């Protein structure tokens, strides 16, 4: 029933409150479904990695049942703690040849970060952090800022329980 779409809950699994919204204090929160939204159940399959195959398998085995996105942060809810950790390890172990590991935030032993260059564009840094059954990617062009965002995302997850 298209006339009832507006009545659907925006964040049925309460993931957006656990998702970092990066940016300066005066930044406006995007209301676009591409930049600030949550997808429960099968809708989250749009975020399933297709390559490498090992990462797709870690997603499938991990039982991801909900995904949230806020600009450069993507949060996943896995079946359990071990699945969230395994997904991060698989991502890090299967980095493309265009990427290389970089320092993760201090004090977060299970955090993993990598930098990837694509042609003449600035390098992209991405970190993965997990807390309990949640895992998140934060990305950006400035490695130090991305590490700070990763630590902030971890704190959000740890304090949102």
DSSP helix fraction: 10-25%
Distance between the termini: 35 Å
- As a percent range, the share of strand residues is 15-25%
- Low-confidence parts, pLDDT < 50 over ≥5 residues? none
From the helix content, strand content and strand pairing, which structural class follows?
alpha+beta
The DSSP helix count reads: 3
User: Care to count the β-strands?
Assistant: 7
Radius of gyration: 16 Å
Tell me about the biggest sheet?
Answer: 7 strands, antiparallel
pLDDT averaged residue by residue: 89
Strand order of the largest sheet: 1-2-3-7-6-5-4
H and E order: EHEEHEEEEH
Shape descriptor reads globular
Could you give the topology of this structure?
Layout (H helix, E strand, L loop, with lengths): L35 E5 L12 H10 L3 E5 L2 E5 L3 H13 L5 E4 L9 E5 L7 E8 L2 E7 L2 H17 L2
Helix pairs in contact: 1-2
How would you describe the overall organization of this protein?
The protein contains 3 helices and 7 strands; from the N terminus they run E-H-E-E-H-E-E-E-E-H. It has 161 residues and is an alpha+beta fold. A hairpin with a 2-residue loop joins strand 6 and strand 7. It is 25% helix and 24% strand. The chain has a 7-stranded antiparallel β-sheet with strand order 1-2-3-7-6-5-4, with helices on both faces. Helix 1 runs antiparallel to helix 2. The termini are far apart.
